[in-house]
Amino acid sequence: NAGVTQTPKFQVLKTGQSMTLQCAQDMNHNSMYWYRQDPGMGLRLIYYSASEGTTDKGEVPNGYNVSRLNKREFSLRLESAAPSQTSVYFCASRISGTGGTEAFFGQGTRLTVV
Amino acid sequence: TQLLEQSPQFLSIQEGENLTVYCNSSSVFSSLQWYRQEPGEGPVLLVTVVTGGEVKKLKRLTFQFGDARKDSSLHITAAQPGDTGLYLCAGVLETSGSRLTFGEGTQLTVNP
Question: Which long-range contacts link A80-83 to residues 24+ away (Cβ below 8 Å)?
Answer without folding.
Answer: A80/A16, A80/A17, A80/A18, A81/A13, A81/A14, A81/A15, A81/A16, A81/A17, A81/A18, A81/A19, A81/A111, A81/A113, A82/A15, A82/A113, A83/A15, A83/A113, A83/A114
